[in-house]
Structures are given as C-alpha cells and as structure tokens.
C-alpha cells in the first residue's frame, strides 16, 4: 500500500505534507511524497543545478563501514557523495526544512530526533547500491532515512529506481513493497532500522539527497552509509 495520503490543510504555518509524513510513518513506517518541496520549488531546482555543476573532485566515492573499518567496495555500491553543510542558500534552505520537519515529528510522534545530516548522492551510468539496511534495530542512532530526488524528465528506461523491501522476508523471496522512480521533487522517508532497500543501476546521471534523522546516542555506531 502506497503512503500517498491526502494532504491536510496547513495549520500555524506548518507545511501540509508534514502531517502526511507523520500519518504514513505511524501507519506503515514509510512514505512517498511527490512534490515534497512544492511550496519552495526553486530550492529543489537550485540544489539540482548545484549538484550537476559541481566538479568531479567535489564528490568522494562512497564506502561501507565506519571509522577504521571504512572501505570502498564497488561490488556493494558505486555512488559518489558530497556532504551538505549549509554553505549555499539552497543547502541552508534544505537543512532548515528538515529542521522544521524534525521539530514537527518530535511533537507529533515523540521520536526524540536530535540531529539531521545529509549528502548529495551521484550515480553515474551503471552505478548502483545493493540491498542493505541503514540501521540495525537497537544498535544505531539513525531513526529515519530521507531520500529527495533531483532528476528532471526521468523515465522508466533510465532505471535507477529505489526498491524498498519488507523487513521480514524469511525465505528471502525478494518481495517488494515499493519501487520508486527517482523523479524530481519526490521524497521517500522510512524507518531506518525496518526496511531493507537498494538502488537499481541507473542508465544516466542520477542525483539525489540522502539523509538521516538521529537520536542522541553517540555510543552506538551505524552500518554503512
């Protein structure tokens, strides 16, 4: 069942899709929101232009593992990343939007979210990220994963879909909950420790922003990011 709930009217300046997100997380643990930044479309456009105009050396090959165990493994993933720190107006607007979402979800769902981090993810033609988890239940401080897509005019022939799997698939049958095209403006949010997922090979350059809301639990380490 897709999480495209009817958006409620905004109250006290809160974006309507914040309530959409809260409802979906409560009901099924994930949501897919088209035109997530509809009220500030220019920010998505500016983030896309920033990402695709950055020089190649601004991106670093993504790896797996943490700290001294961090390694690059092209069998598992072949994307490149660039962390966002608010140095451009578009980055700061993106971080502000997620800060507001954090405040709303804490008030609405009592999640105890403490911080948010995100990076551009760049997939060259043929790049992928095999099935993985963003957090392990009870062993990490990531609570929510966000993915925001920056790809205009994306078609099914371009590939690069995000595939979300159910948490419990005892016979490893590869049952699929959702397959999401990385279309400009679409945002996916899910509970980090509950949904295995993968990125299928892209046929052309694919850009997104991947992020994580965390709780303040610094003695726990996360799996690959």
Give a structural overview:
The chain is α+β, with helices and mostly antiparallel strands and 225 residues long. Helix content is 20%, strand content 24%. The chain contains 3 helices and 11 strands. It has helices at residues 16-27, 41-53, 89-109, and strands at residues 30-33, 60-61, 80-83, 115-123, 129-132, 142-149, 162-164, 178-180, 187-191, 197-199, 206-214. A 7-stranded antiparallel beta sheet has the order 1-9-6-11-4-3-2. Strands 5-10-7-8 form a 4-stranded antiparallel beta sheet, with no helix packed on it. The radius of gyration is 17 Å and the shape is globular.
Question: Which features would summarize this protein structure in a list?
Answer:
225 residues; 11 strands; 24% strand; disordered C terminus; 3 helices; alpha+beta
Poorly predicted runs are 1-11, 64-73, 219-225
Structural class category? alpha+beta
CATH superfamily: q2cbj1_9rhob like domain
Side-by-side strand order of the widest sheet: 1-9-6-11-4-3-2
